[in-house]
Amino acid sequence: AKDVLNIVNKFLDELRAQLDEKQMTIEVKPCALAWIAENGFDDKLGARPIARIIKKHIKEPLAHKILFEQFTKGTHFTVSLVKNKLVFKTKSRSKASNKTNDLRLSA
Length: 107
Hints:
This protein has 107 residues and is of the alpha+beta class. It has helices spanning 2-21, 30-40, 49-68, and strands spanning 25-28, 76-82, 85-91, 98-102.
C-alpha cells in the first residue's frame, strides 16, 4: 500500500511542477490520496491506471477550471474526498474567493 501511495505522489509531483510554472499550488489530502491509490491500482495492470485516474479526475477538470474560470497566479487548489467523490477547493490571493467544486467523479 505504501508503494502505491509513493507512485501516486510521484504522478502528483509532476502535476505540482506544472502548476508551479503557473505560480499555482495543489494539496491532495490523505483521504483523496488513499482513494486514488485504491481506485488506481489493479492486480493485473499494477499502478499504471493511477496516471489515468489522476488525468481524468484531477488534471482535466483542473485544466478546464484554469482555462475557463481564469484563475490567477497564487491560486491554491486543495483536493479532498467527500461522499466518495474527489472535490477541490480553490483559494486565490487576488480575491477572497473560496469555492468548492465537484469534479464529477464516481467510484
